[in-house]
Each structure stands twice: as structure tokens, then as C-alpha cells.
Design a protein that fits this description.
The protein is of the alpha/beta class and 601 residues long. It has 22 helices and 16 strands. α13 packs across α20. It is globular.
């Protein structure tokens, strides 16, 4: 049950690399929390904590980003509120620089907003003697060998952050705001959580927020069998009482494994998806008796009317006509990052099967893959590429066009397009969706929201996807959302539909084996083995898409209505009230100090 109304407001500290910039899923989660009225009702203070580089040249007023307000910065001699008395002793003791202020969140079309405090610490020149003492304590108490990982800045930076962040938070908080709930968002916050466990149990409760399981991601991405191999191994191994190192050998070389594998030491552990929870339990036996709470990510509940849907769809149809020379019957999109775990080749397998089915009915389709490995291209570069050689229908190697993983995606799309007529694939290697970002052939008033409203099918058949907000973003617009069964959002759909699923969501099960296999056989799975399974699944997915597509206005309205009804039950307000707050209520009842003095072994 949610906390009683007379409970004092909670104080949260979120340790994350996205305290200022929204770089990925964690930033999206933080925004969803901050703008939720339910969160705001129960949380008095939210402090985002992360590292910064104050020696870099930047406008002092923009150290907290475009939506931030700097109240204190020792590097810039800014102190708007008398904060130096709290921060200067910590800066002197640890030889760090602190930037503190606020950050505003604007929920865009949702009509919501929120605000958090931001505490950034430059640890580049941290006091080495104090740091080494802390590392020694991590080794003696938790068996964490920092010497093995300290040459990796991703590890070293957050170990350096831990102590000055702990003392800065302690200085900022009043007694009536304690205990503070310190969230470790992924591995980044674990050193700070371990510091709180060592020295701060009267002041802090610690929660590990698993947005993924880094150990599982590494295995899935590196093995040719990907999810088809891994999740079958995981299920068999857990049935046999085995853990990841029993099956795949030592993982100690991975610093993220070393940190996440100790997250059971936190007072609470939450996972964004069912499979992420399984993956954590697979790490070691210490998780056997530790509850892991499922706290799914909220899904945007964009209000969409049939008229808005049709207007946006017409804009994308007009753009398609200008770009590829025909007006497709089926509009497909995949908005994603250009990484192997997103399984873009699976989109092409499904499109291959769709090509035959659409052609037989005299229909056509188009798939827009919106992804970028080179950041946002400048408007002048977009204009030049569009004018000179027809970007994004045509591409050329080298920046401002194809860079990094974009080249392989382009090559695969070109091979596909050469062999198919009913379906064509267009790679749009850009962030954003507007004329300045996409080119003058785009309808003048079209924006990213129009792209999401317009699509008939959104792909998201990832090999590793702890949750996956993006694949469900067009759900409220009546799109068919095609996800893999290992996506955490599939569990959320099952949860809100009481296990019945949704006509709007198609689940592709790439873990369904063509025959029973042992763990050792699975570990030897080849790319060819996986391909054969994927092709069979892709044909089934294509059949479901053809069966569920809204070929007339009545079916379109039904999909839109069903999508709106579904996302209304999947927002952040519901997630916070039904999952996050009950877990936090349990933490309130924990004793202030653990009986073993904080070791929690």
C-alpha cells in the first residue's frame, strides 16, 4: 500500500551520469518521476548527484545545462545563497570542486513539470590519500578490489565521487529530512551506496535501481546466439541451482559485474523488468533471499484523436512520396540507438516476409529506421546532403553522413532494397524530426510527435532490452508495437492486462527453440542456428502484422481506442503508486543501523 498521507515527505538522492543531460533511458526515467504529481506528493526533495568536469571551458551559467540554474560553483566564484559554509570544507578535504543548483523538467505535451536539485562534483584532482583509504575499506569490508579496475575511468570516477558526495549530501540535509533514500542508478551509484552502508546508516537507506544487468548484457551481445542462447541457458541453469560463473566462467574482469554483483548489500533492489530481475538473481547466491521489487518504467500517455492520427499520417505519407516515389500503404518505424542489442536485422527479416505478403495484395510499405551514431547533424549539412545527393534516401560514407555503426545498417538496408519492391527501408541517421533536421522535403509543420502518431508499426525486437520505453511510445497512437519476448515492457503489458496481452502489441519469441538443447549445446549455438530460428519467428510476426493492420477506418479507430486505454494504465503515476511507494514504505520500517555495524556481509 502507498504511504499514509500523514507520513513526512521522503528525501531522494539519485546518483547517476544523467544528472544534467538526458543521454538515455535513465534520464527518461528521472524525468518521468520528477514530473509525476504522485512523486511530488510523497517526495519533498530530489537531489541528482553526478560527476562533472569544471576545468572544461563553458559558460558558468550553463554548467547545469539549458534547464538548470547555478546557485553555487566554486570554480566560477558563484554563491547565491550562502552555500560555501556547507561545501567549502568538503572541497578542501577532498580537493574537489562542487557545482550546485536546480534543474527544471518540462513534460512537453503532457502539461506536467517538475524540479530537482543538482549536485555535481569534479573529482579529477581528488585527494589521493583519502581515496586510497576508501579503496582499502572497500576491499576489507566488501572484497571489492579497486586496484583491478582503477585504470578504467568509468569505475574510477564513481569511486572518487562516493565520499565527497556522501559528505555533501550529509551537509545539505536537515535532521527532519532523514533518512535520505540514496538511489544507485546502475553501477554508477554503487560506490556511493557502499559508502553509505559503511558510515551512513543513521542517515541513508540505499536502493539499487537496475535499469539493466551489465553482466547479462555483455554475454548476450558478445555471443552469436544472443538472447536465443542466453535466456534458455539462464532458465535451465536456475532450475539446476547454477549461477552465471558456474556456466560462463569468471566475470571478475568486468568492473560493472563486480559492482552490480554487490547490489544485494543495498536495503532495496528494484528491477525495471522481469528478465532483469532474473538476471540479477543469476549473478550469485547472495540474491536468493533478497527481495527484488519490479518497478516498470512508465509509458508516455500521449492524447491522440483520430483526426490528429490522420493528419500526422498524411504528412509522413507525403514525405514518403517525395522521398521514395510512392505512397505506401503501411508506415513502419524504428526509433532506436545503433547498437547490436537493438536487433535491427530482425526488422529486415520481418520486412522480407512482409514484402511477399504485401505484394500479393498489391500493397506497399516503408520502414524508417531513425538512429544516429554521429549526434545531431547541423541544418546546413542536412540541406547540403539533401540537395546534392538525395539524403536520407541516398547516403555517402563519412561525416556529416555515415559514421560508425550507421555504415553497417546502411549496407544492410541497401542490400534489402535491391531485392525487394513492395517494402523499402530508409535509414535516417539523425536526431530529431523537423525540417531543419530532416530536410525541406519534410512537411513544414511536421515534428517528432507527428512521426510517432503517424506510424502503423513500431519495431523493437531487441536481443537485450531491460524495459524499452521507445518501442511502446506509439502505442497510444494506435500503432502495432512489435517487441521481443525478452523486453521488459512485455512484462508490463502482461501485468496491466492481467496476462491476456494486447491486440496492439505483437510479441516475437526468439527464445523458442526448434528442438530441446542442453546448456552446453546452447553455449555452442552459432549465428546460423540463430538465423534459422529468427527466420521462422519473423514469418510468424509478418502474419500477425498483416492480420492486425487497420486496413479500414473502423479498425484504425479500434486500435487507437485500445492503445489509448492501455497506456492510460501504464503511466508513471500508476507505477509510482503501485510499485515504488510500497517498496519505500518497507524501507521506512527498517532499523536505522544494521546490527553488524554496517558491513551487511
Amino acid at each position: 500500500m502507498p504511504p499514509k498521507p500523514d507520513r513526512k515527505p521522503l528525501t531522494f538522492a539519485h546518483v547517476t551520469h544523467e544528472a544534467v543531460e538526458q543521454l538515455g533511458g535513465i534520464g527518461t526515467v528521472l524525468e518521468g518521476l520528477m514530473i509525476s504529481p504522485v512523486y511530488q506528493k510523497h517526495v519533498g526533495r530530489s537531489i541528482l548527484v553526478g560527476p562533472t568536469a569544471t576545468h572544461m571551458s563553458t559558460d558558468p551559467e550553463h554548467r547545469l545545462g539549458d534547464h538548470g540554474k547555478v546557485l553555487y560553483s566554486s570554480i566560477d566564484n558563484i554563491d547565491r545563497g550562502g552555500f560555501s559554509g556547507k561545501f567549502k570544507p568538503i572541497e578542501w578535504a577532498f580537493n574537489v570542486a562542487i557545482v550546485y543548483g536546480t534543474r527544471h523538467y518540462d513534460g512537453g505535451g503532457e502539461g506536467r513539470s517538475g524540479e530537482s536539485e543538482v549536485l555535481l562534483i569534479d573529482v579529477f584532482r581528488v585527494n589521493p590519500d583519502r581515496l586510497n583509504v576508501f579503496k582499502l575499506r572497500l576491499w576489507e569490508t566488501f572484497g571489492l578490489d579497486s586496484g583491478r579496475y582503477e585504470k578504467n575511468w568509468d569505475y574510477e570516477e564513481y569511486v572518487r565521487l562516493a565520499e565527497p558526495a556522501f559528505y555533501a549530501l550529509s551537509a545539505m540535509l536537515n535532521d527532519d529530512e532523514l533518512p535520505c533514500v540514496l538511489f544507485s542508478h546502475e553501477f554508477m551509484g554503487m560506490p556511493a551506496a557502499l559508502k553509505a552502508i559503511l558510515d551512513g546508516q543513521k542517515k541513508f537507506h540505499t536502493v539499487f535501481h537496475a535499469h539493466e544487468c551489465a553482466t547479462a548484457r555483455r554475454i548476450v551481445e558478445d555471443h552469436p546466439g544472443h538472447d536465443t542462447m542466453f535466456y534458455n541457458v539462464l532458465d535451465q541453469a536456475m532450475d539446476d541451482g547454477l549461477y552465471v560463473e558456474d556456466v560462463f566462467g569468471s566475470m571478475d574482469a568486468l568492473f560493472r559485474h563486480a559492482l552490480v554483483g554487490r547490489s544485494h548489500l543495498c536495503d532495496g533492489v528494484i528491477a525495471v523488468g522481469d528478465r532483469t530481475r532474473d538476471e540479477l538473481q543469476f549473478l550469485n547466491s547472495k540474491f536468493d533471499d533478497h527481495p527484488i521489487d519490479l518497478v516498470y518504467n512508465g509509458v508516455p500517455a500521449m492524447k491522440v484523436t483520430p483526426a490528429q492520427k490522420n493528419a500526422s499520417r498524411k504528412m509522413l505519407l507525403d514525405y514518403s512520396q517525395a522521398l521514395v516515389g510512392y505512397c505506401p500503404d503501411v508506415l513502419m518505424t524504428h526509433v532506436t540507438r545503433p547498437v547490436i542489442s537493438k536487433g535491427l536485422w530482425r526488422d529486415m527479416k520481418v520486412c522480407h516476409a512482409l514484402d511477399e505478403r504485401l505484394s500479393a495484395q498489391g500493397k506497399t510499405g516503408i520502414l524508417y529506421i531513425l538512429t544516429s551514431g554521429g549526434g545531431a547533424r547541423r541544418p546546413q549539412d542536412v540541406a547540403a546532403m539533401e540537395e546534392h545527393y538525395g539524403w536520407p534516401r541516398v547516403h555517402k560514407p563519412g561525416y556529416p553522413d555515415l559514421v560508425g555503426p550507421e555504415s553497417d545498417i546502411h549496407n544492410d538496408a541497401e542490400l534489402f532494397n535491391a531485392d525487394h519492391e513492395a517494402v523499402q527501408i530508409v535509414l535516417v541517421n539523425q536526431f530529431g524530426w523537423s525540417r531543419s533536421r530532416i530536410g525541406k522535403r519534410l512537411p513544414e509543420k511536421m515534428d517528432f510527435a507527428d512521426l510517432r502518431r503517424a506510424t502503423d508499426v513500431e519495431f523493437g525486437m531487441a536481443t537485450y532490452e531491460p524495459f524499452g520505453i521507445s518501442p511502446l511510445e506509439p502505442l497510444g497512437s494506435g500503432a502495432l508495437c512489435v517487441i521481443s519476448n525478452v523486453c521488459g515492457c512485455q512484462g508490463f503489458v502482461n501485468h496491466v492486462t492481467h496476462g491476456h496481452g494486447s491486440h496492439n502489441v505483437i510479441v516475437a519469441d526468439f527464445t523458442r527453440l526448434d528442438r530441446p538443447r542442453t546448456i552446453e549445446e546452447l553455449k555452442k549455438m552459432t549465428r546460423e542456428d540463430r538465423n534459422a530460428i529468427e527466420e521462422a519467428v519473423a514469418r510468424g510476426v509478418a502474419d500477425q502484422i498483416m492480420d492486425r493492420l487497420p486496413w479500414d477506418e473502423e479498425r484504425q479507430h479500434k486500435l487507437l481506442h485500445a492503445g489509448q486505454a492501455l497506456v492510460a494504465r501504464m503511466g508513471w503515476d500508476q507505477v509510482i503508486a503501485e510499485s515504488l511507494l510500497p517498496m519505500l514504505e518497507r524501507l521506512r520500517n527498517l532499523p536505522a543501523v544494521n546490527g553488524n555495524g554496517g558491513a551487511k556481509k
